[in-house]
Amino acid sequence: MFWSKRPDFFNQPRQFEGNFKGERTQEELEQYPSNFIKTSRYNIVTFLPKSLLLQFTRYANIYFLCIAIIQCIPVLSTLNPFSAIAPLVFVLGLSMGREGWEDYGRHVSDNEVNATECVIMKSRQMKVSTWAELAVGDFVLVKQDESFPADLIVLGSAIQSGACYIETSSLDGEKNLKPKSAILESQQLYGDKNNYTDKKIRVEAQVPTQNLYELDASLFLSIENDEKLRKFQLTAKQLLLRGAFLRNTEWVIGLVVYTGQDTKIMRNADASRIKSSEIERIMNILILGILVIQISLSIITASFSSAWLHQNGSESWYLGYNDFSPNLLSFYSFFSYILLYNTMIPISLIVSLEFVKVFQAYFIEQDEEMYVQSRDKYAKVQTTTINEELGQIEYIFSDKTGTLTCNQMEFKYCIIGNTLYGQEQQQTNNIPVQNLDPKRPQSAKVHPTSEVFQHSVFNFQDMELSAILKGEGSQGEQPVNLIIQSSDGKQQIQIQKQRNLIDEYFFLLSSAHECIIQYDKNQNASYQGPSPDEITLVDAAARMGFQFTGASASEQNFKILGREKKVKLLKSFEFDSTRKRMSVIIDDNGVIKLFIKGADNIIKGRLSPNQIFLNQIVNYLDDFSKVGLRCLLMGIRILSNEEYREFDNAYNNLPDNDKRAEEVEKLTNNLEQNLTLIGASAVEDKLQQLVPETIADLLRANIKVWMLTGDKLETAENIAKSCRLIQGDFTVMRLSESSVEECKKKIGDIQETYDHCIKENRKKSFVVEGQSLQFVIDNEDLAQAFVSMAKDCESVVCCRVTPKQKADVVRLIKDRLNKITLAIGDGANDVNMIQAAHIGVGLYGNEGMRAVQSSDFALGEFRCLWRLLLVHGHWNYIRIAEMVLYFFYKNMIFTVPQFFFSYFCAFSGQSFFDDWYITFYNLIFTALPLIMRGTFDQDINYRQHVQYEEKEDVASVQKKFEEYLKYKFPTLYYVGQSKSIFTIPNYMLWAFTGLVHGMIIYFFILWILDYEIVEDNGFPGGLAAFSLTVYSSIILIADLKIAIHTKYWTWFNFVCITFLSILLYIIYVIISQFWPGTLMEYTPFTMVGTPHFWLSMILIGGIIGGLEAIIAQLQREFFTDPASEMLFKVNTFGLNQNKFIELKEKNQKQFKDSFWEPLYKQYQQQNEEVIKFSQSQHAE
Amino acid sequence: MSDSKGFLHWLFFKKWHPVPSVGSTIALFSIIGVIFVALGIVITVINNNIQEVTIYKYDQKCSPVEYNKQCSFTYKLDQMKAPIYFYYELENFYQNHRRYVKSKSSTQLSGEEISLSDAEKYCEPIIFNKDLEQWQQAVYITENNEQVPKQRKPDDIASPCGLVAKSFFNDTYELSLSEKNIELNQTGISWPNDKGKKYKRASDSESTQWIDPENEHFIVWMRTAGLPTFRKLWGRIEQDIEEGEYTIKFQNNYNPQMFAGAKNIVLSTSGPFGGKNLFLSIAFIVVGVIQLLIALAFLIKKIRAGPSFGQKNE
Prior knowledge:
heterodimer; A: alpha+beta; Calcium-transporting ATPase, cytoplasmic transduction domain A; 37 helices; 36 strands; B: alpha+beta; four-stranded antiparallel beta sheet; 11 helices; 10 strands; globular; disordered N terminus; P_typ_ATPase_c (chain A); ATP binding (chain A); magnesium (chain A); sodium transport (chain A); transmembrane (chain A)
């Protein structure tokens, strides 16, 4: 809403020419959006009016402004105007200050981005310019490791073939390199940065979209010296995205096609919004409700006032009315009563809530259990207004890479022939392994801030395998006798021993891949490639001694067990999501081999019959996939020279048209048959610490977890398995269709499976792929069907999704189901979803700070979510919900006497209490105990002992008991989820209690002070005495009530109730004794000497305290909630344990037939449950 | 654990997680119940010793009913023990009306002069002498040992100004038994501290103030009542009185019909808990008994249900 309006002509398709000279007119500049980016909302001039306006979009603020205005009109005001204005200014100032500070941050980052330097080519000259000055049609030179200033079309690259590599982690979170390339023709024209063509170049492109993987544009080049332009279709392969980095390529020349707000990254960015919590929304409704009550009460009182004045006004001579209009006066008294009943909606509620939330945030940030050592980070709270929603989450949307996983792959097992290797490796991933090659850096660095992030972790260790590779031991001599023949039988190789098979296997790994080798400043080599899996395999092979040292277009170089080796690279067929396999054809010393690796189902279908290793390998694979390892099968085919020549001819003679790709596919498909299986590999996508445990507990807390990832479907599913999102007994439903119709059909099928699952009460999981997801989002019927199923699935996995889609999925649930959602992620690609969800959690990751910056809570690791939600969230919900209820209660008991007093003062608008007593009631006397309770109260804590008992056997029982409590803890989360505390009926109950208590206080004291002879000296009381007694009783009851409802006492609670509430009140009473001109002047000292004062307090305390105690006791008897059950268990456990131990030491024999026997039994019973629990834990 | 951390730990984690048991509830209720019943009984006993006599609408007892006249009537009183407090009681008089309550200047009453703007701000609608009653405007100045009536300047600020002062209750009483006057002590009837602190004579009181602000009846009047029916202390009888027909002579100045109300006289003795108050004693006894009954109910249930009562979760 803060964007300036986008002109219509920006939404036309783009047609422009390359600007060789780099000069342009104003008119040309205005044709497209500028590359200047503005995310800030205010400037110095607009800040005050705009942010004030924003403040007054809150009902409460408008209300308080009105109250302050009324209070300033003397004829209406019953109270001191200052007492209304000061809090209002304070509240507004606080939020405006925060708003201003945040916007300042946006200004700074905008300026930084806009002032970033880039190089524009003007008539082949390099001119340094800033990002902001860039315009459509400019030629830009980008060097290695620089980021792209706008969306560019790559025209030429330093690499001869026109290829270049980009890293798009800021856009989609994926760290691996993406190959892009200039089309051949433009590479020829622009391949030399010092001497590229000055001929005309034209681009026609579609309106900018948000899809990262889409470009619909054509390039017109003039080739072969004629002026006629030839058209070339462009694809996403030519698109360089703003914000991405150029890697592994010395430089590229690009043509600016989309600028500023048109770029993919900006199109994917959502405007940030202000978050307010569910409770606050209900509270606003309640406030509106109370406002209605307040106004109607005022109207009622005003009309009574009018009636009284009509009847008695002229009679009551002592009021000095002459010539008066009862209607006008009662109109005034309407406003006076609005002010008096204003105590029902005190401004201090909002201030107190803000304070409590800030304190809660402080304790979240101080929590030792959320400290992540590897990153040296505590949790950070950036939005304090939604603390309690942490306890109400029903859906979690989690990014995968970097959030659930470390984005690190580990080579776990390899199966070569019939033998499985890799069972001896250590579990921990951070122990640096011995380097096999001293030139290479250690891959797994312990320190997280290492400059180069490593995709692969290598802990693989197998004594047997290394012995074989070293040529030691006898296992390598085991006979294999595998003969692989070409189809026509003209060529064959023979693999006799296990050792040869192993050589072949690792040679395949180091050869069949798309990785490139990269050297850093210290000449340390590392591999880069399109997917981390692939890198890991190449890396593993290298560490086993089969080192890939580089490749050119037709050659591959290796260093195998110390010896250099060169093979001819004949063909290479890339991996893609439909092929799910990758193959190379090499000429290895005259033998033409096709090396292939791919997904198990794909390879299995392409094997020639009679595979000797197949059964064994399939057995292993089943086990691997159960634990979520990524498995690939490796196969070989031998080609005779004739076979290859035939293929090569066919390949080269393919027509050069649109169908070429299809034909290539057909050809390779035929070639990649009759394979011989030689082995398999299992790679683990390393999960972050405690991820499966955390997810399991979240699921037990009845939170649905959705995983959203840019990964392929299979990968995503594997990870989901390994982090227990999909467990063994889950039914998996997959939706991956490429058209709306198919999608509809499939959804129908899935519905059947789903109904079946529901009937049989089976757990289920939904896996949906990006494209289908888009159909679902765009199509209302599909969306309905999808949501109705997905909402009850234990887990949902969305793969191949764009950042925008991630946010769309969140909105799908948020808007349709009206449930509280949380999104967690670590990369810039998660920003949208983080902002879209009710609560956004950012992780400090390897991919920069953008996720953290736009999040509400920042954590070090995924596992911290356990404590953030199940502990802090749970407590905070209870704290805030009960605090709001109590707030309405305490203002109810304060307003009710005022209301009834109006009946006794002829509805004249006389305030029952002194001005400053009213102001201080919420501000001081009842504020701190409530704030402390809102900060500290806990229904139950699984940590029962600050320190364990010194005696070891006792300590172990204590620890076991805590474990048991911790295990039970997630089951308490329902409290917030079902919004069971802050409900309208509960509110009514509290308000009603307030009404009853208020009436008890007012009328009992009225009757006690009846005729007002309050002392043995015969003094009558008067208004001041009456008011003081009622007020003191209210303070007493307010504190008593909060004391009864405090479940968890800390030193602070005690101090606040006794000293900062009651003592302060006493001090103020003393002050008011000497406050000239007030109602109370010279009243308190005498009053506290009277028995009536104390008798009133005792009576009221006894009645209300008794009422509360009975209700509490009955509630415990008949409506126990799980938390207090657990608490009860804890207490009896502790009690029994202490007594038991005490007695055990005294005399063990005395137990039998003694008074303590039942107690002893009770203790044993208690222990049994704990022991049962801990046994079940060990079994897992 | 270091000392500083120990302290912080103690500060934040010293905790008490109370779980009230049935036993403690029973104990609590029994104790409170017993205390309440005991208090109730004590109050009842004391109440029974307090005597209170109300003479309703005493102004109606003279015929004809005329105001600003002296008048007397007889009333039969029982024997009463000193001290006996003598109150007047007004009904349907809203001393707590907003317009009324705020219409006074505490600065002026504490003996200082106030500006016209302050008078207008605080004393509306009684600001000037001309706004006062006729008798309040008259002033007597001692000239040659003789009190000479003199009119105040009508446009001077009234002192004390405001509605509360203007409506000052100015009936006076005398009590006698068979011609023998019974002294009504009219000192020490105002709240402690009010006289001389809250209410002080101005330096030129005699010439400017229409009433002495240290007049205790005035001070008593100025302490506004909380309810439309209220009593105010007028005097104290410091001797025991016998049974007999007493003559009450009073200056009938104040006309309750002007506010559709009534004025009464109340004679009362007092105990350590103040005046007679039935409600207090009944409330304490009833609440105490209920609490004891609840304690008993819980106890019976606990005994019947055995030790599992209240521990059903085990």
